[in-house]
Amino acid sequence: MILIGGYGYSLFPLTEKQYKHLLPIANKPLLAYVVEKLQSHFFTNFVFVCNKENKGEVERYFEEKFVWSKRIPHTTYYYAPDRYLSSTQALADLCAKYVITRDILLLNGDLLTACNLNDLVDHHYVNDNDITAVIVDSKESEVLIVADDQLNALKLTDKEELRFKGMYLSASLTQKNSVMNVLANKDLASIFVIGKEVFGILPKLSEKFHSFGDELLPFLVEHQYNKKLLGEIRNAGSNEDESEREQGQRSVNKERYRINCYPLVGYNRRVNSLKEYVQLNFEALSMHRNSPVFAFTENNERALAPNSEDKNKGQGNIIGAENEISDSANIKRCIIANNCKIGKSVLKNCIVLKDTIIGDDCNLDNCFIGARVVIHSKCKMVDC
C-alpha cells in the first residue's frame, strides 16, 4: 500500500504543473524508485492511495510508460476517495471494501530507502509481531522511543509532549517489563508491516487518529495490554471463516498487542523540501553505480547530450554538467547541473545548480538559483 495522496506544496513551484511523486530524480519519476524497489523484493500486489487530482496521471504512467519486470507478475489498484481521507481513514475504507484482506506493507510514495524488505517481512513473522515499524538514526528526530530488550515498543512520544507533560508510563507497562531502554535520535522510517488483525478496529479509531505513524501507532503502543482493545481485536476477527480465524488465533489470544521496532542502518530519505529534492538529484548522479537505491534502469529517461542544439529541451529532465545551451531554448521543470552556460533562453520552474553562467536577456520564472551562479545584465527574474 503506497501513500501518494499528498499535494506536494513543500516543493512548489516544481509541483505547479507536475505532481510531486512523478517529479524526476535523475530522469526517473520518484514513484518509479519505490515500485522498482518493491518489485525487486518480489512484491506483486500494489495499492496506490491517490487523490482525485493525481489518480489519472499516476495510473496513466504505470499503465503506459513504466517498464514492469517481465519475471514478476503484478496487479495494481488505484484508490482515490471522493473527499480527503487521512492515511488511517483510507486504510479503513480499503479494508471495508475488501480491497485489502491480508497483511500489508505500508510506505510513502516519496521514500527512497536501502531497507531490505524481505528481511523486514521475515523479521515480522519470525517474531510473531502484529505491527513492525522500521526505525532509523536521525539527529533531527523529534520522536522518543521506549522499548524492551527485544525492541518491542513500550512508548512512542515526541519532544513537545515531553516538554509539557513529561514521561508517563502506565502501570501495566512498568509491572510487566523489567527492562526499558530509551532510544534517542531515532525516527520512524515511514515503513510498516501491519497484520490484518488491526483492520477490524480501524473503523472505530480512524476518525480520531488520522496519521498512522504519528497518531494511531503511539495509541496502540500505549494500550498494548488493554484488555478491552484486545477484546475488540478478537471480536473483529469473529466474522472470519474458520480457517482464517484459526490462523489469527495466535495473535488475538496473546496478552499484548506486539509492536516491534526494526532498526535500519543505511540510506532512508523522504522528499519534503526543495533543498532535499536538489540534494537527492546530486546523490542519484554520484551514487547510482554503487547504491541499489539509485540504480539506473529502463525507467530512467535518456539524459540530454552536451552542446545539444535542440531548441525545446522538454520537461522534467536533468541537463548534465558543463553543457552549453544555445539561444532560444525553452526549458521547463528541469535540473540544470553545475558549470553550464545558458544563452538567451526561457527557464521556467527550473533548478539551476552552482557555478552556472546565465547569459544576457534570459527570462527566469519560478526558478531555484544555486550558489555562485553568474547572471548577466538584462535578465528578467520573477519569483525566483
Number of strands: 27
Give Rg in angstroms: 24 Å
Strand content: 15-25%
What is the averaged pLDDT score?
A: 82
What is the topology, as strand order, of the major beta sheet? 5-4-1-6-12-8-13
Q: Runs with pLDDT <50, length 5+?
A: 245-252
Main beta-sheet annotation: 7 strands, mixed
From the helix content, strand content and strand pairing, which structural class follows?
alpha/beta
Q: Percent helix among the residues?
A: 25-40%
What would the principal axes of the Cα set say about the shape?
Answer: elongated
Distance between the termini: 36 Å
Count of helical stretches: 11
Description:
There is one protein chain. This protein is of the alpha/beta class and 384 residues long. The chain is 27% helix and 25% strand. It is built from eleven helices and 27 strands. It has helices at residues 30-40, 55-65, 87-96, 117-126, 159-165, 171-176, 202-205, 212-222, 227-236, 242-252, 274-287, and strands spanning 2-3, 24-25, 28-29, 45-49, 75-79, 104-108, 111-113, 131-137, 143-147, 153-158, 181-183, 186-194, 259-264, 268-270, 312-315, 318-319, 324-325, 330-332, 335-336, 341-342, 346-348, 351-352, 357-358, 363-365, 368-369, 374-375, 380-382. The strands form seven sheets. A seven-stranded mixed sheet has the order 5-4-1-6-12-8-13, with helices on both faces. Strands 15-18-21-24-27 form a five-stranded parallel sheet, with no helix packed on it. The longest helix is centred in the last third of the chain and has 14 residues, at 274-287. The chain is elongated and about 75 Å long. The two termini are 36 Å apart.
